[in-house]
Amino acid sequence: MSSRKIRWSSWLPLVPALALLTGILLVPLGGTFVRSVSSPDLTLANYEHLFTDGVTMTVLGRTALTAAVVTLAALLLGYPYAYLMTRVSPRARGILLVVVLIPFWTSVMARNFAWIIILQDGGPVQSAFELIGVDDVVLYGTNAGVTIAMTQVMLPFMVLPLFSTLGSIDRKLLLAARGLGSSPTAAFWKVFWPLSRGGVMAGVMLVFTLSLGFYVTPALLGSPQQSLVAQLLAQRTTLLLDFAAAGALGMVVLVITLGLVVWANRVGGTVSAIGVVATSQPKDR
Amino acid sequence: MTRQTTAELTATPRETGRGTEIRLESVTKDYGLTTPAVDDISLTIEPGEFMTLLGPSGSGKTTTLNLIAGFETLTAGTISLDGADVSDVPPHRRNLGMLFQNYALFPHMTIAQNVAYPLRQRKVGKQEIARKVAEVLELVQLTGRDDTHPSKLSGGQQQRVALARAIVFEPKALLLDEPLGALDRNLRAALQTEIRRIHREVGSTFVFVTHDQEEAMNLADRIALFNSGRIEQVGTPQQLYAEPETLFTARFLGDSNVFELGRTALGSVVWEGESWAVDPATVSAHPGVPSGCAIVVRPEDVEVAGGRDAVPAGANAVRATVRDVEYMGAYRTLLLTIGERGLFGRARISALRGDYAIGDDVVMWWRPRSQRIVAA
Amino acid sequence: MSTPVRTRRRPDTIDPIPWWLKVVGGLVIAFFILPTLFVIPMSFSSATTFQFPPPGFSLRLYENFFTNPIWLDSLGNSFLVASLTALLATTVGTAAAVALSGLDGRLARLVRTVLMVPIVSPAIVVAVAVYISFLGWRLTGTVTGYVLAHTAIAVPYVLVSVTGALGGFDQRLLKAAASLGASPLKSFVQVTMPLISRGILTGGIFAFIVSFDEVVIALFLRSPLFQTMPVQMYNSVTVEIDPTISAASSLMVVAVTIIFILPQLLRGRAGSRREPRP
């Protein structure tokens, strides 16, 4: 009797958080799902349309490709940077960390606006290309421009989990491998890279899934003709007011994202990496 | 006279005013594992008594203390303080002081604030708090450090502060959970003396958990010896050492020579062909106990002779070989190999009695009244 | 003379940082910082377009920002929503983190994971779902609606940061407090809270910024009567072509930098102040 009473009271402080999550997130998402399979009638028609309307699949493919490119670019830039962070003095490491965190915390709108200035027609990037004799480089309103800006916005999500993983690898292993006759390059690929895979996994998963649902950057820097899935979703909701069709699309994006998170978490403890990132940032929210 | 007997204290519980009787009846705590952590324990701790719960780790002594404190809930049974059932009272309303192994001082409060904490909970007036804090800090010999933070103190000093904090509100009893476990040997000895002195001065009931038999012997009025969730034996340190009822008790407190007998009839017993006399007064175990019984002889009750003819009549004797000799000043300990199966034995003899070397064949003997027959 | 120099250098030469790594590091630093810095010269522009470099300099954009009621109202709205969100999310998230720290087992782990869902859900999907539901509940364009939606996504940040602080908190202190007569609520206020205050404060700041900076949900919940600053910034780019956004952006960049660097400076000073005490 009494033991049960005590158990209950220790769960009690969780009630507000769970109520909020349920009321503000789970109920609307559940409603979205119900609507997507029951409106106009109880069929999977809304989901079938996604495959047959000729637009959705193209946009989903484009989004996946963009997300993949952004992820790859972020990895190529983020890995050396995170590696450098583990090598320098603690003081320099602090500076490198602040360099990641400050833009990270800086207003999403401010950063996207900065990219508008930079990439716009007649902007600094175009002028720079003209200086080296390449005229009429237009990045504003293209997927290339969106990709560049997204890479910058996403980079911290790659660097932070990588840094926490790389920092925990014992560098003496590398030196030991070299002492046994490996070249620096071979020692890196045989020893360091395999040990860093958990962090790579976490960073790749975070950047890819966040890129899939990214809205602000493509909406501001991209073009409606080359839209990504988030824009399509917004458009179907606010312009076409087709809540059921939008709901079906939203469910697909949500399931893909959460599926990837769950899968990545199985492969290599990613939720803890999200924790690492969550305490240092809150972006694209 | 360093030790007050329980009789003296029970005679005048109202005068010391702070002694509380703690009664455990059929107390059980079951976490759903193969055996209950605490299995149907009944124990009455007298007002003002210093009771030590002794036992190896996992024997249920700490769980029992936590049950008394209210940090664990009972699976079955009742716990009462001065006759009032507190089984369903939450810990903060039980009015019991507690001392922890890691001190558990609040790091964000000064020494004075730590000690004042329980008084603040009880809405004691400011001046009264100041007076009591000063008084109790003097009692634990820690004056002048009021505004220091705990992290600036040594382990021993921190435990004194914790002690002051645990007694300042005159709790019904003080529960001590291996409070000296983290301290080094010398400091332990000093604090043991201190704790005994404070027990005498405040006259409150103390329940002290430890796995260290020496500490238990030094401190306790009575010891409750725990084994696998049950109480093996309760008694004064003297009783437990001199009159163990079970083999576990005999082995846990001090060194023993143990001769296992299996089931046997009493009167005289036979061990590996040696026939021994039995003094009925030394029999704790029923001869019929299922697990059989054993003869226990303390090393200091054993004598060693060069041959059978030197053994006095009426003594029990057995052949042994000297395996090693430890010199301890006034006496020496012979480590012996006994009988055909090479049983390990010990004899503590005066340094004046003969000179034995490793490899010597000897006879060890003892009087029947200095052996105990216990349940194995 | 040469010996000490050589011995000091030797550790570097066994395992040096390759030069190209430093170059890549420098490029990434530039990529992180430079783009955002473009908004600062822009904010002093005299132009009425997004032209860069600015044709001339003036304080006109700042003047507009601080006098135009549309910008001021949206700034005020953002402060209101973010403050209420921080308050609510910190309370709710701290309670959840403290409860979870005392619980064990599969159910507790499941709850912890479920509470992290808002962080990994795509903002746009959440925004659309919340928008449609809030339409039905008449919460769009209301302070309540904004605060509830922002709190739901801000709680995980508080949860993570308070959980981190609780990792260094000795649960046995709560036993001590109980044995000294403190009720669970009192021991939380008098013992737990002061010792995890930094984690709570950090969580609160996170929650504030999450809300203050949130665009996607805000775009859907906005009404002509109530919109937040990020939404006004969005409008100024997509609809109005109003360069005042560069003044707003610059102010936010500076504010975030100060908020971010200030605790580090304070921590450094507090640490050095505590150290020399005997």
Question: What does this entry look like structurally?
Answer:
By secondary structure, chain A is mostly helical. Chain A is built from 15 helices and no strands. The model of chain A is unreliable at 1-5 and 281-285 (pLDDT under 50). By secondary structure, chain B is of the alpha+beta class. Chain B has two domains: 6-242, Rossmann fold (3-Layer(aba) Sandwich); 255-375, Beta Barrel (OB fold (Dihydrolipoamide Acetyltransferase, E2P)), CATH 2.40.50.100. Chain B is built from ten helices and 20 strands. Chain B has helices at residues 6-11, 13-16, 61-69, 111-121, 126-139, 155-167, 185-202, 213-219, 237-242, 247-252; strands spanning 22-29, 38-45, 50-54, 76-81, 84-85, 96-99, 173-177, 205-210, 222-227, 230-235, 257-262, 268-271, 274-277, 293-297, 303-305, 316-327, 331-338, 343-350, 361-366, 371-375. In chain B, the strands form five sheets. Chain B has a six-stranded mixed β-sheet, with helices on both faces. In chain B, strands 15-19-16-17-18 form a five-stranded antiparallel β-sheet, with no helix packed on it. A four-stranded antiparallel β-sheet of chain B has the order 2-1-4-5, covered by helices on one side. In chain B, helix 4 packs across helix 5 (126-139), helix 4 (111-121) packs parallel to helix 6 and helix 5 packs across helix 6. The longest helix of chain B has 18 residues, at 185-202. In chain C, helix 5 packs antiparallel against helix 11 and helix 5 (69-101) crosses helix 13 (229-238). Chain C has a domain at 72-240: MetI-like fold (Orthogonal Bundle), CATH 1.10.3720. The longest helix of chain C is centred in the first third of the chain and has 33 residues, at 69-101. Chain C is mostly helical. Chain C is globular and about 70 Å long. Chain C has helices at 2-14, 19-37, 39-43, 60-67, 69-101, 106-120, 123-137, 143-167, 172-179, 184-195, 197-213, 216-221, 229-238, 244-274. The interface between A and C is large, with 91 and 100 residues.
Notable traits:
heterotrimer; A: 285 residues; mainly alpha; 15 helices; 78% helix; globular; B: 376 residues; alpha+beta; Rossmann fold; OB fold (Dihydrolipoamide Acetyltransferase, E2P); 2 domains; 6-stranded mixed sheet; 5-stranded antiparallel sheet; 10 helices; 20 strands; disordered N terminus
